[in-house]
Amino acid sequence: MINGPRGTKDILPDTVAQWTHVEKVIRELCARYGYREIRTPIFEHTELFLRGIGETTDVVEKEMYTFTDRGERSLTLRPENTASVVRSYLQNKLYAADALVKLFYIGSMFRYDRPQAGRYREFHQFGVEALGEENPAVDAEIIVLAVEFLRALGLQELKLHLNSVGCPKCRPVYRERLQEFFRPHLEELCTDCRSRFERNPLRLLDCKNEHCHALAEGAPRITDCLCDECRVHFTEVQSYLTAAGIPFELDANLVRGLDYYTKTAFEVKYTPLGAQSAVAGGGRYDGLVEEVGGPPTPGIGFAVGLERVLLALEKQELLPEELEAVDVFVVALGEAAQIPAFKLLHELRAAKLSAAMDFAGRSMKAQMKQANKKNARFVAILGEDEVKEASALLKDMKTSEQKKLALKDFVPALCVEVKN
Ligand code: HAM
């Protein structure tokens, strides 16, 4: 037997209802906030992610599913969707229609990481991106949307962590201060952090290694090194969030795993999830459009990990349970009943009722068992006598009442019953 690859999951019929429930909330909310759906390809030119996400990030260095196609092109299964949306925005000139373009997406992403509860190699994100506006009110709108989405699902105990990661003007200054701080401790750092020290020192701040983490506690704060523009922007984002009644926690050690962020960075955590508690993450990326080859264009967005959201909903018993149910189950008894029963099944479905039938010619008892399993509201029974009289028995499974109806009246009569 061949199993699915490690880190992937089948979404089975019994759980699809949970996904459609979450997707419905997403669509309703995005319509209310004015975000329109975009669907981009699952794979892109590898170059897009190298430039967009940054070559020294863990995602690019260790986690991408990259392959060469038959035309000798290097392609990568998208590890995230912001770079793809920006590519599409430029390629399709979406900026021409609107100064501010607001988009959302739902889809699978792929990262080669060590699988564990809440971390998979194929996972699904709901994300939004707002392109073309630098006003901090847009940062706040995006953050409010992330929080309201999780609240709309019924989640409480949410923690919003907020930081500013500066811009290309002020970040080099901070980088240097950070290196000065960590330099005397270089020998004590884990191997990953030693290599991050030169290449991406901001990442030293969120190392999971206990000793590195303890050292990082005393590190200089980026918010003390922001340039005037970034500082004012950050203060305004906070004022807007306060106005919207969204509580937040300033977290100077919040650095995101992707290199494109500027100014606002945030994460929403749902602490009962433990190690993989980040359910949403995002921020501003004012340099990304240019990085991908477009004109300077501000942007901001976030993505929510849907598996993590479902885990959280399961923990809180907030998931809808949808049992399989049909309006009618058709029971056919004996050879002669098979074709009339099939005809009835077809007519019921044509009348927009959900109908099922057993095709294995089982006993009455076995077919009634099946009808129960499928939670049938009514059962139609066709035996030899009924076939001879062109009739069928209609059994109401709630009341156990039974009546005989002429086959020609059966479907209209049932439509009335189902509506009642
Ligand atoms: P990210 O923080 O890498 O950001 O991912 C966003 C969310 O996706 C995480 O908070 C987490 O819930 C979920 N996630 C990430 N990796 C996995 C995994 N291996 N298994 C399960 N869930 C996972 C981004 O992807 C950015 N594109 C977000 C963004 C949009 N920033 C601006 N616009």
Task: Walk me through what this model shows.
With 420 residues, this protein is α+β, with helices and mostly antiparallel strands. The chain has 2 domains: 15-167 and 227-316, 2-Layer Sandwich (BirA Bifunctional Protein, domain 2); 328-413, 3-Layer(aba) Sandwich (Rossmann fold), CATH 3.40.50.800. 39% of the residues lie in helices and 21% in strands. It contains 15 helices and 16 strands. The strands form 3 sheets. Strands 1-5-6-11-10-9-7-8 form an 8-stranded mixed beta sheet, sandwiched between helices. A 5-stranded mixed beta sheet has the order 13-12-14-15-16, with helices on both faces. Strands 2-4-3 form a 3-stranded antiparallel beta sheet. The two termini are 48 Å apart. It binds histidyl-adenosine monophosphate. Residues 80-82, 111, 113, 119-120, 123, 125, 127, 129, 257-258, 278-283, 285, 301-303, 305, 307-308 line the site of histidyl-adenosine monophosphate. It catalyses: tRNA(His) + L-histidine + ATP = L-histidyl-tRNA(His) + AMP + diphosphate + H(+). It is found in: Cytoplasm. This is Histidine--tRNA ligase. GO terms for molecular function: ATP binding; catalytic activity, acting on a protein; histidine-tRNA ligase activity; transferase activity.
